[in-house]
Amino acid sequence: MVVMKMRFPFEKRVKLAQGLWILSWCATIAGATTFTLGCILKTELRRRAEVMDNSDIHIVPNTLIIVGLASLAINYFASKICQDALDAGRFPRWKNFLKPYFAVSCFFTVLMLLAVIMSYAMKGSLESSLKIGLRNGIRFYKDTDTPGRCFQKQNIDRMQMEFQCCGNNDFRDWFEVQWISNRYLNFNCKEVKDRIKSNVDGRYLVDGVPFSCCNPSSPRPCLQHQLTNNSAHYNYDYQAEELNIYLRGCREALVNYFMGLMNTISAGVLSIFLLQGSVLVSLRFLQTAMEALDGNENSEIETEGYLLEKGVKETVMEYLDPVLKFFLLKNQVQEGMAEEGASTASPP
Amino acid sequence: MAVLKVKFTKTRRDKLAQVLWILNWISVVTGVLLFCLGLFLKVEINKREELMAGRDVQYVPNMLIAVGLLACAINFLGGKICYDCVDTNKFLRWKLIILPYIICTFFFTFCVLVGAVMCYSMHGELEEALNVGLSDALKFYKDTDTPGRCFLKRTVDMLQIHFQCCGNSGYKDWFQIQWISNRYLDMSQKEVVDRLRSNVEGKYLMDGVPFSCCNVNSPRPCIQQQINNNSAHFNYEHQTEELNLWMRGCRQALLEYYTHIMQSIGLTVLILSVLTGVRYLQTALENVLRQGDPDSESDGWLLENSLMETARTNLNIIKSLVGRTTPVNHKAPPTPSSEER
Question: Do residue B221 and residue A214 have CB atoms under 8 angstroms apart?
Fold first, then answer.
């Protein structure tokens, strides 16, 4: 059963070809935009690579980059096909090319939609990656003289200032790690010794935070040390104090930032997906309408165009059959070779 | 004697007209760029107006905005003239306009050059404005509960973080002012009282800086209090320590920033080359009209006579114009004397 049949007089075919030519160039620009958006997202993720445990989230920008590049090629060919569709004599040369072209185009267009879905689905993965990454980042904050970690302190400080956040979940995360290097601790000092002896791990823990946690919006000069000790500071109550240091954790801040970025990109990619889809649908109509002219001397007759010659299920099977046959044949060849090997190995 | 005389064939005249047409359009874009630059500079100056004492600095962005718009108009007209100059017949309609156009453009270009010079000469004025403005801002840093100064602390902190600077001339500026409000000082504490009594003005001065002075590149946690006291911190020497705080003063940082923006205005000199070319095109085409043959070779020059003669001619024209406009004082008839009566 034919899906979405439409009649196309000569003028309508010409209009469709011309309109589609413009649309395909718009989609080419959209493809370049998708590629650019993918690059932007990848760059942003790489900038924060030091506070991420794994790079699973990179599948989203990688997909966008691949889809963007594929879209450029797909739409370039679409514009060439449209140009040749205006001349009935030049169109038949595309006949054998169009079936694989549509298969590849549909695959990449679906991949574009998958990229959008993945950007929402990967939130959990991003969050867990940031959780572990930030925890390690805070733990290695003090190691400014350890190769490979020299810039960890600088990165964390810059991040906390840029994203107006403090710690992993909140500022209390700094109380659980030793963030001051032993190099800057005076071990002759009784207070330092007592503090180190007061916990099993022998770490110098303080209820203080780095300067980058300080909130510039606070009306009072920043308090960084003895944050939980009200009597150490005049006119201060740490439970009620909301402006002294940033209260939001960096994991939350970064997740919000990346999700905001990905949501914006997804909205753009979704509209590009619709544009790409309309190019493919229109091109399919044009192809079927032009194929109806085969063997006809009069190229100005009215023809019929459709989306699918058979039902959706049959069409999918038609495309999958050669692929399945190819893999089946490959398996049979491998099995045959294995049997031959076994028979030669066993003695008569 | 003509100044800088050049021979122009028909092809060369057409080439000159085409190149000038392109140059005019480039200058239109330059005009738009100048306008945008002026707006950007105005916004940037307004953003930091709390840190500037005088408002004399505003004339530079205002002039840039005006010059940008004028450049667009003048070069758009210039483009039209050059486009029509390829055809000798079309040139006739511009014949009367072209000389006043060149004079206007000359004055305009002169204004642009004055503007460019002003951008460089403004350096001292800007420095003075920033010096006074930043001194006041630092002085009022603590007044977070005073209306009109509530956000000054935040502004100064953000400035120091963004421009990676500390104080006005350097971090030591913070040692000379009280930057902690009395509201957060425990007056019952001996150390606070002693510190207040230790100077004539009764200010709470200390060798400390706000957190925004801390340098992110420092390998050690930031030392903000007792900066001059080496024994107060382990493994620390304030004379050699260069990474703990930002060493550069905010006046220098802001001055460099604004100077950098204003130096981008050298683009405007491009308009001068357009002006010179238009003058050559005008004189070459006028000589073609005199000869009567549109395809003939003609001379083009910057000035028909020498510099002195041109100046003298122009002065005579101005004198004759002035003479024509001033009313003639007719002598009043003599009043009859008493004897005649």
Answer: no
* pLDDT at residue B295, rounded to an integer: 62
Tell how far CA B184 is from the center of its chain: 43
What confidence category does residue B55 fall into, taking pLDDT thresholds of 50, 70 and 90? Answer: very low
pLDDT at A163: 93
Q: Which of A215, A247, A279 is the last residue of a domain?
A: A247
pLDDT for position A287 = 76
Q: How high is the pLDDT of residue B308?
A: 64
Q: Is residue A152 part of a domain?
A: no
The Cα–Cα gap between A37 and B87 comes to 49
Residues A200, A275 share a domain: no
**Least CA distance to B216: which residue of chain A?**
A154
CA atoms within 13 Å, Cβ hemisphere of B20 = 28
Please tell me whether residues A40 and A14 are part of one structural domain: yes
Q: Which residues of B323-338 are buried (b: 16+ CB within 10 A; e: fewer)?
A: eeeeeeeeeeeeeeee
Cβ of B199: how many Cβ atoms within 10 Å? Answer: 11
Distance CA B310, CA B312 (A): 5
pLDDT in tens, B184-221: 988 888 878 888 878 777 889 888 999 999 998 999 89
A:B CB pairs within 8 Å: 70
**Would you place residue A339 in the very low, low, confident or very high pLDDT band (cuts 50, 70, 90)?**
low
Report chain B residues whose CB lies below 8 A from the CB of A189.
234
Distance in Å, alpha carbon of B25 to nearest chain A alpha carbon: 27
Cross-chain residue pair B158–A181, CB shorter than 8 Å: no
Looking at the fold, whether A177 and A237 belong to one and the same domain comes out as yes
User: Do A191 and A243 belong together in one domain?
Assistant: yes
pLDDT tens digits along A13-52: 777 888 888 888 899 999 999 999 999 999 989 788 878 8
**What is the total count of domains within chain A?**
2
Question: Mutation test of the interface with chain A: which of B204, B209, B214, B236, choosing the one with the most A Cβ atoms within 10 A?
Answer: B214
- Name the amino acid, one letter, at A218: S
**Quick check: A211 and B217 CB within 8 A?**
no
Neighbours of B49 (CB within 10 A): 13
Tell me the residues of chain B between 185 and 244 that have a Cβ less than 8 Å away from chain A.
185-186, 189, 210-212, 214, 216-217, 219-222, 224, 233-235
Instruction: Say whether both A33 and A115 belong to one domain.
Output: yes
The answer as to whether A342 is a domain residue is: no
- The reply to whether residue B210 touches residue A154, judged by beta carbons under 8 angstroms, is no
The mean of the pLDDT values for chain A is: 83
Q: Are residues A30 and A107 in the same domain?
A: yes
Instruction: Answer yes or no: is pLDDT of B329 > 60.
Output: no
Test A211 with B221 for CB contact under 8 angstroms.
Answer: yes
Structure-block tokens of residue A113: 């939609």
Q: Do B183 and A235 count as a contact with CB atoms less than 8 A apart?
A: yes
Which range of residues forms the domain containing residue A318?
A: 6-125+254-323
